[in-house]
Amino acid sequence: MMFSNLFQINRSLTREKYPLSRKKITKKTVASLINLTVPFIFICFIFSLITISISSDANIDFPVVFNFILVIISLFSFIYLIVGILIYFYQKAYFAKYYYEFNNDYIIIKKGVFNPIEITIPWEKIQDVYVEQDLFDYFLGLYDVYISTPTIISGYNAHIDGVEKEGAEGLKEEILKRIKEKSNFNNLENKK
Fold first, then answer.
1. Which residues pair with 38 in a beta bridge?
2. What is the DSSP code string of 36-69?
3. What gap in Å lies between CA 147 and CA 124, rounded to an integer?
């Protein structure tokens, strides 16, 4: 029952109008695997050096040591593959649970699989909106839309990442339009 709705997409009018790209799953999976590759190679290298050092002190034949190292590296590679598959399914669930909606008073962003967070941003608090790409985004044609508020952590949490160019431009335009409308409404209310 717990996993039955893990990959069911959280729908909202805003997400349907400006959808996340499925390329986001690929990007996050590949980025995570690249971050794991360096420690993986380092561990294999150190383990191989230790094994060779121990075997030379114990006068063990090189073919036996070489085969042992191959078995251990194969085991580590299998573990790396399993971790890669788990990362892929986690990113797929993260993609499905990613929710964002614009209502009259707030932008609501919910993200996370096992420990979800919800960010609620009042339109009046938004100071800036900008679109950004990192290297992976550039190659995949993805964009991140950041929403800046007076709080320090807003740039980290308050963003919608993994939309294509049209979606990023649309989100930015709609946010700026709503900020302007709220500002005009507040100015009229203050004049009364």
1. none
2. HHHHHHHHHHHHHHHHHHHHHHTT--HHHHHHHH
3. 12
Neighbour tally for 182: CB within 10 Å: 16
Residues whose CB is less than 8 angstroms from the CB of residue 73 and which lie 6 or more positions away in sequence, other chains included: 44, 48
- Amino acid 18 reads Y
Q: Are 170 and 18 in contact (CB under 8 A)?
A: yes
Q: Is the dihedral of CA 52, 56, 57, 58 positive or negative?
A: positive
Q: Are 146 and 155 in contact (CB under 8 A)?
A: yes
Which pLDDT tens digit goes with each residue over 82-130? 999 999 999 999 999 999 999 988 899 999 888 888 889 898 888 889 9
Token representation of residue 86: 């788990």
Tell me which of 1-5, 53-57, 82-86 is least confident: 1-5
List the alpha helices (DSSP H) in 58-152.
Answer: 62-97, 135-140
Q: Which residue has the tokens 């009046």?
A: 124
Decide: 133 and 154 in contact? Cβ < 8 Å.
no
CA separation for the pair 86, 18 (Å, rounded): 28
Backbone Cα Rg of the chain: 24
Hey, is 118 helix, strand or coil?
Answer: strand
Structure pTM? 0.81
Nearest to 145 by CA among 31, 27, 26, 20: 20
